[in-house]
Amino acid sequence: MLLGLIGKPSCGKSTFFKAATLSDVLIASYPFATIEPNHGIGYVRVQALCKELKTKCNPRTGFCTGETRFVPVELMDVAGLVEGASEGKGLGNKFLDSLRQADMFIQIVDASGTTDKEGREGTGDPIQDVKMLENELNKWYRAIFEKVWDKMSRTIQTTKQDFAKEVAKQFSGLRVKEDDVKSVLIKLKLNPEKPTLWSEQDLSIFTETLRHSTKPMLIAANKIDKPGAKENLEKLKQEFPNIQIIPCSSDAELSLRQAANAGLIEYIQGDSTIKISEGKINKKQKEALESIQKNVLDIYGSTGVQNVLDKSVFDLLKYIAIFPAGSKLADSKGNILPDCFLLPSGTTALNFAYHLHTDIGDKFIKAIDVRTKQPVGKDHPLKHRDGIEIMTN
After folding, report:
1. Per-residue pLDDT tens digits for 96-111
2. CB crowding 236-257: b at 16 or more within 10 Å, else e
3. Which residue, 2, 36, 92, 383, is most buried by CB atoms nearer than 10 A?
4. β-strand partners of 4
């Protein structure tokens, strides 16, 4: 799974990326501080299964507080996108091409409106920022289709090939699946048997709808603690009622995580409060941390960065967390619940077996629910936070 961070220059993408991953990346107040994409690991929260089973887990990746399991996900931060990016402006083709493999987009928006459309200090409009990026993404997606559309549509029509299958095959690099294509065709009532008769508008609407389906997007209203941001947040929600918008302060999250690593406070990402370590902190540091508590955590319940990651994976992508677990809940080395996998909603017991290893899937007999100790069949749909033991022959 890959979450792509997008937005105009100087909106706070790299700060969000560093706050979520603690990767060492350049953060600067000038446009295009990021050129090559940055990749790092963030985490999503899952209610710990170990507590429910009255044990303590030993995660192989991520970590567990005893209450919450933090499961790793990959993030990618690309350079800021400007108007005309789909036509190559600002090295836009290079940056957009990096987004092909992303499962979804997190658009970082400067909710304070203190940077112009090029990312320079000045006056900006968060609503126009969202519209600009939406337009560039739609143009980019359509341009990819247009390169092969004439030939592909003629071939499909003359040979009577399956439209959804051929489109999914041609655009697998964009993570397009057959079911995605089928659902868009049904929604738009387009004729897949005669694609050569589609109008320019048909193709535009098809590619735009397919882009929304295959690359869903969430908005992180960044710099929410800055003057004017709260009012702009309400305007964004009114303008884009169908897009999930989450207020956040990347600066605050980064400061808290760095302070926690330095032992100055007790804080875990996503928390609503911090505990200052008296005697380890000076007056200036204490005032800064108390300001974050008062102006961010007390108002919004968190810095929002963790919420963005959680909502992206579990709400937009609709993934579920599954724990592989033997009868003793441990692996061959004695580690308790060492793994937790994020899988698409609708994953069956047999799907999960194959995800673990081809041989396990091939030799699947049944699965055991570790909570109920009851067996389940290969077609049994798994639920979020299931603990499953796979039995093989």
Report:
1. 778 888 999 999 999 9
2. beeebeebbbbbbbbbbbbbbb
3. 92
4. 76, 105
d(CA 81, CA 31): 10
Residue closest to 144 by CA, chosen among 175, 108, 104, 103: 175
The predicted pLDDT at position 291 comes to 95
The residue count of the chain comes to: 393
What are the residue boundaries of the structural domains of the chain, listed by start? Answer: 2-135+216-312, 141-213, 321-392
The CATH-assigned architecture of domain 321-392 is Roll (3.10)
Continuous segment of H or E residues that includes residue 2: strand 2-6
Closest to 107 measured CA to CA, from 250, 252, 240, 222: 222
Residue 28 near residue 76 (C-beta atoms within 8 A): no
* Secondary structure letter of residue 75 according to DSSP: E
Low-confidence ranges of the chain (pLDDT < 70): 24-35, 85-95, 327
How many other CB atoms are there within 10 angstroms of residue 230's CB atom?
16
If one counts every other C-beta atom within 10 angstroms of the C-beta of residue 29, the result is: 10
User: Which numeric CATH code is attached to 141-213?
Assistant: 1.10.8.470
Rounded Cα gap, residues 375 and 378, in angstroms: 10
282/278 Cα distance (integer angstroms)? 9
Please give the Cα distance from 141 to 139 (Å, whole number).
6
Q: Which of 26, 25, 21 is nearest to 40 (CA)?
A: 21
The pLDDT of residue 98? 80
pLDDT given at position 30: 45
Classify domain 2-135+216-312 by CATH number: 3.40.50.300
Structure tokens at 331: 């692996």
Within 10 A of 362 (CB to CB), how many other CB atoms are there? 11
Tokens standing for 142? 């359509």
pLDDT tens by residue, 49-84: 999 999 999 999 999 999 999 999 999 998 778 777
d(CA 260, CA 356): 35
